[in-house]
Design goal:
It comes from Capsella rubella. By secondary structure, the protein is of the alpha/beta class. It contains 3 helices and 8 strands; from the N terminus they run E-H-E-E-E-E-H-E-E-E-H. A 4-stranded mixed β-sheet has the order 1-4-3-2, covered by helices on one side. A 4-stranded mixed β-sheet has the order 5-8-7-6, covered by helices on one side.
């Protein structure tokens, strides 16, 4: 393996997000019907209740909590809380679907340099927050060097700039 200072673990992508849930069936139904994830086969060697779903390039692994009564209860929707975010093509279509399914949500707007990003936040059945956004319009700009790119076009190796080589030149005077 070639050493890569900007990606020392040689990561390529996010594989899955694992979530504890009270009811595997209820959560599976939510991720399938609301977000379009498809249930997939789960290894039979996993000897606990759960389900795997796949969509949008990542997996959702649902694990039934051994103590579902101890999972935190749903609270007010707070965009500053832990969440996973999905990019979408049409905020209007997402908002309509959430309204049709009677899912409570909060709308937020981020403005930067004349660019506006719409965000919708809502909870899954266990209170885990989900964001849907059109964040691709906001450029990803490295803090040091590099060029602005949209989220969908960023690759880690493109963001990492080669470190300048420092050469010491020794001048020897006779």
């Amino acid at each position: 393996m070639k050493e890569n200072a900007g990606n020392p673990l040689h990561l390529t992508s996010l594989n899955h997000v694992s979530l504890l849930c009270r009811s595997v069936d209820e959560s599976m139904n939510f991720y399938h019907k609301v977000l379009g994830f498809i249930p997939i086969r789960r290894p039979e060697s996993l000897n606990f209740e759960g389900a795997w779903l796949f969509g949008h390039g990542i997996g959702i692994h649902l694990l039934r909590s051994p103590e579902p009564e101890k999972l935190p209860k749903k609270t007010a929707i707070n965009p500053k809380d832990n969440h996973i975010s999905f990019q979408c093509e049409s905020m209007g279509a997402v908002e309509k679907k959430l309204e049709d399914m009677e899912i409570e949500y909060v709308r937020s707007l981020v403005e930067e340099g004349g660019i506006q990003v719409d965000q919708l936040f809502f909870h899954d059945p266990d209170g885990f927050m989900i964001e849907i956004c059109n964040c691709d319009s906001l450029p990803v700009v490295p803090l040091v060097g590099g060029m602005a790119r949209s989220c969908s076009r960023v690759k880690l190796h493109q963001m990492v700039q080669p470190q300048p080589q420092t050469h010491v030149h020794q001048v020897v005077h006779p």
